[in-house]
What does this fold into?
Amino acid sequence: MADWLTPEGWQAVRLSLRVSLWAVAASLPLGILVAYALARWRFPGHGVLNGLVHLPLVLPPVVTGYLLLVIFGRRGVVGQWLDQFGIVIAFRWTGAALAAAIMAFPLMVRAIRLAVEAVDPRLEQAASTLGAARPWVFLTVTLPLILPGILAGAILAFAKAMGEFGATITFVSNIPGQTQTLPSAIYAVLQVPGGEAAAARLVATAIAIAIAALFLSEWLSRAIARRIRGG
Amino acid sequence: MLSVRLRHEFKGFVLDAAFEAPAGLTVLFGPSGSGKTTVVNAVAGLLRPQSGRIAVGNDVLTDSAQGLWLPPHRRGVGYVFQDSRLFPHLSVRQNLLFGHWFTGRGGGRAAHLDDVVDLLGIGHLLRRRPAALSGGERQRVALGRALLSHPRLLLMDEPLAALDQARKDEILPYLERLRDQAGLPILYVSHAAAEVARLATHVVMLTDGIVAVAGSVSRVLSDPAVAPLLGQDQTGAVLTARIAAQEPDGLTRLAIPAGTLFVPYVAAPPGTLLRLRILAQDVMIATEELHGISALNVIPARVRDLTDTAGGVLVRLDAGNQTILSRVTARSATALKLAPGMPVQAVLKAVSVAPGTIGVSGG
It folds into this structure.
């Protein structure tokens, strides 16, 4: 089993999992907040925020990666500022996670927003008449009801992060052990003559992870829906 | 005592209402679109009125003059919605305790789960989910949930409107018990005259955003000005009677100030107070002492006034210190030369007893 992939291959798989999990975990709270704001609040800049969130979906990934480099690179606006504290993102696995999070963010927000819009605001009103302040209404009524949507958004984002290539390779390059994720590894192996067999194994691994994620999400969302409906 | 004064403009509709709701159950009555739900939402804090003042006793909930507006969760106002709005992800027990959990540590009226569960007869439902309840059960749970949030005022927005008659009959006794036992002021929105007659101690009649009539149920329902709002076949007086005796032939004898009434057996001991509803169309008028008539209930009365309505002449009769309404045709009114002050006999063809109205004065 261990020699199914080369040590570099396993390294890429582990890195991809780490990058994707961190990308999803770190962006999830913001994703829930943005989805809730877009679904429920009317404020100046609503349209701008909506556009901004969806931008990575329509921009060429290379462009997103380039913009990340400009902003978060060591000479970039934010990158310079972070450098003062000794934090470097460009060409590190954290940069790969950032790129993956931004590319996956629209999918995550869309799924959660749909769930928020499906929650009857009258239930939230009822909760407030029963003495629950706004944050409590969110925690005790809204959040449990949108849990399946959050789960769907998270899995979708995870799958997207696992597959992210263009922005990642532009922003953090393709350094084995540092920033070489599974897609980057497949790409690298294909550049070498005779690498087709290794590439095929990496591809099979990628497919297996994707299917496993899909089954897990299906199972979890059924379990949650059962709890909410109370069968 | 709830006092409400508010003004709110919508597109093409102005709500400008002021009234007071004393202890007991005050029905906010009026046709659809008259602004009833808006009033209740303003009391609950779900709508911020453009101007006005709402207070429960000495506690001010809203006062636009002071720029004061309490958010819903700090009002201590229980709200039973027409569509129950139970939380689908929580069990019945968790739903019931939802408000209790937020308000339990505060002051307010102490209510205990066991008492409320007993009052509403929902003990067997505690472990179920709302999806597994019938409409009537849902409304009972919603009512219990509101009661357990320690409210100082209870709002109910047409809590029976979505239910069929059987389900209504299932809940009405609980509402009556609540009105008579909880000692909690209740503001109850309805557009059904039968509910008003059965439940209300006070009535606030709302039409086109304005309070048309307000007062005790017996006074408002016997007001001829209210008749067109109730509809012809729903116009009728509400009065209070005391059970005098159970007759051997299966009837129950009732005492009212003007005399004696016989009604089909009422299962309650002598001395019990009952609420009666007597529809105007069920009352005939005779100007002379009657002999040889099958109607059991004939009581002496005096004509107070006559009002022309679309469906005939509405005659208000003083019977003792109570009021009865009778509807006669214009032809009969002329033939009998009915005039204010004239002594007559009121022949009651039907008297409906609201069951379970024990201990209610009805104003």
